[in-house]
Design goal:
The chain is α+β, with helices and mostly antiparallel strands. It is built from 7 helices and 27 strands.
């Protein structure tokens, strides 16, 4: 396996010439870019011309990660050529959250095979219910297949996201790559670092990823009480106060949910993933030191035993970036420090992260740092 990473910036172009000798049907090119990149013909065109036989995937972001650096207005790319691993890619279209489960099923059916070892998924960040997408994938895949990835971002604007697959970059798309064979080793780690506060409330009315009531009261009304003056900045300010949900009070497994939109008329909030009716919900707030430590923990969890070149893909939530502010690069540096020496790190800030829980089953996460590591033995 050979791995190279590059960064494209307006005015200066590529940080180094693209390594065109890595082009092959067993090469995966991952490209993560500023939302405006889709309207610039040069960087994506350069990738298509340099890697005509490779598998190209990517998405818009809320910030790009390259090595130990966080950048905006750029495109970062990793080029990984496998020696003994087969690679396949596929896409599915979605017009709204209700099509998410079917899109996941379609992705899994297209990639499914006895020797499938891992699936890396990139999805539109605004039109998809990430929980249903992941469930759809899992419903058609063997339990030992590692599923990771993330939801595309658009900074704190929540207006337009896009996914790249081959020659096409557009909204309303899910793209995925499957890795096959015994030679590939894929590790995954996901960790938060947020603190829970306030009373735990019961979700008394919800439909999929739309929350209407907590303890019989309008959910948005309760949420605004906690936000105070920050309520005027919704939905962006909601990234500072995510929601932790769990099935029952005697269950320790919590899943974090981030708000994508609010509906004043309905007094509801739309989340990146499901908020099941009857579950418990509780607000969360940031502890900056714990967020940075969480990134390091995620990297350690993703470690594989394979030696040699390793690609690491870091997908962190836009909410973490807004909270950490000038300290954001600290979580990237902590991630790189915990990875195997010589690892090539790329990634992005997202609207949702896809990774297994510690118990093994895959889910959509919010407000986490998620690391996927890939190597060949």
């Amino acid at each position: 396996m050979q791995v190279e990473t590059r960064r494209w910036s307006t005015g200066t172009g590529w940080s180094e010439p693209l390594p065109e000798d890595l082009d092959s049907p067993a090469t995966v090119v991952l490209a993560f870019g500023d939302p405006a990149i889709a309207d610039d013909a040069q960087p994506l065109g350069d990738l298509r011309r340099s890697y005509p036989t490779s598998r190209i995937l990517g998405c818009s972001t809320a910030g790009q990660i390259h090595g130990d650096a966080l950048t905006d207005g750029t495109l970062v790319a990793s080029i990984a050529r496998f020696d003994k691993t087969r690679v396949e890619t596929t896409t599915a279209s979605v017009d709204g959250p209700g099509e998410s489960f079917a899109a996941g099923e379609q992705i899994a059916q297209a990639l499914g095979a006895p020797d499938l070892r891992a699936v890396f998924v990139l999805s539109d960040g605004l039109l998809v219910n990430g929980s249903e997408l992941v469930r759809g994938c899992a419903s058609r895949l063997a339990p030992d297949v590692v599923v990771t990835g993330g939801l595309a971002g658009d900074g704190d604007r929540f207006e337009r996201t896009w996914v790249l697959a081959g020659d096409e970059a557009r909204s309303g798309m899910v793209a995925a790559a499957g890795l096959y064979g015994d030679a590939v080793h894929v590790g995954a780690g996901s960790f938060g670092g947020w603190d829970i506060f306030g009373p735990e409330r019961r979700i008394t009315r919800a439909e999929g990823n739309v929350l209407f009531e907590l303890d019989g009261r309008p959910a948005l009304e309760i949420y605004k009480e906690y936000l105070g003056d920050r309520a005027s900045g919704l939905p962006a300010t909601a990234l500072l106060f995510p929601l932790a949900v769990r099935e029952a009070r005697d269950t320790n497994q919590r899943t974090v949910r981030t708000i994508l939109a609010v509906d004043e008329a309905a007094q509801s909030m739309t989340f990146a993933g499901d908020v099941p009716e009857g579950w418990q919900a509780q607000l969360m707030r940031a502890n900056k030191d714990r967020l940075v430590d969480g990134a390091m923990q995620a990297a350690r969890m993703s470690t594989t035993n394979a030696e040699g070149p390793q690609l690491a893909v870091a997908i962190s939530c836009v909410g973490r970036r807004l909270v950490l502010g000038e300290r954001t690069e600290e979580e990237i540096e902590a991630t790189l420090e915990a990875l195997a020496p010589g690892s090539e790190l790329v990634g992005f800030y997202s609207y949702g992260e896809i990774a297994p829980h510690s118990e093994g089953f895959c889910d959509l996460h919010n407000q986490t740092m998620t690391i996927t590591t890939v190597a060949e033995a």
